[in-house]
Design a protein that fits this description.
Layout lengths: L1 H24 L8 H20 L14 H21 L6 H17 L5 H7 L7 H30 L12 H4 L11 H29 L12 H48 L1
Length: 277
Amino acid sequence: MFARITGAATRGVLVALLIVMPSLLLPVSATESPEIIALMAILGGVLTFAEYFSNYPSFVEFREAPPLNRMRYIAAFAMVGLLSLLTRHPLDPTGLTALVHTFGTHLGAALDFSYSPVQLIVLMLPLDTASETQQLMRSAASIAYLVAGLAVLGFVLAIRLGNWPVANGAFNVWVNLPLFDPTTGGDVVARLQRDGRINIIIGILLPFAIPACIKLMSGLIDVTHLTAPQMLIWLVAAWAFVPVSMIMRGLAFLRVAELIAQKRRAAYAHAETLQAV
């Protein structure tokens, strides 16, 4: 019980820290609505604590199948932290922010090629946007995209080299997939493979679709508000994290389907051996 409380409380604190990180790293003049941010951090921490303290799953997938959710959190933490330092540089430069700014500038120059997601997110800005703001957006998108790519690569290595998820013991479908009902909708393996492929396809398309949707909605919303420090951080972080999270979810579904198919083949082979005997 003590270990469960400690683990749930630690996760709640980490989620709250992630939410308030931009406000902690940015200068006071660039922070907006600290009361709302504090409320969101408390709510996020409480919900996370309640989810991991409960014996019964509710909505968090793969909670007993590390390191998937840990890798997701690390990716989100790295994105928000690096983007906060990058956004702080024009306002309150330090040695660390200068290092992140220089790295983002070089990375943005490498990833800003024709029809790349980085170029599309820069093109969604109004034509009269200052060149410094465009460069900041380009650097932020490049850093977030790099972190997302490393997260996917790390999870693929965890599957292939770390034998995820069976390396940590038996995989409980009910606990790790609370929103998935294996008793309805036909064959479980086919459904998992279908859902996995759909998640991967949507995750690949979203970095291209989100800037296009924002550009189409420019007549309804003022896109210039998206370049405010905190808004830029969360916009770019969401633009990179949501697709990478869906891709990792799709890979996890395909891996679970593969394990179920392997167990079926082993069971069929064992049954045939018994019949032969």
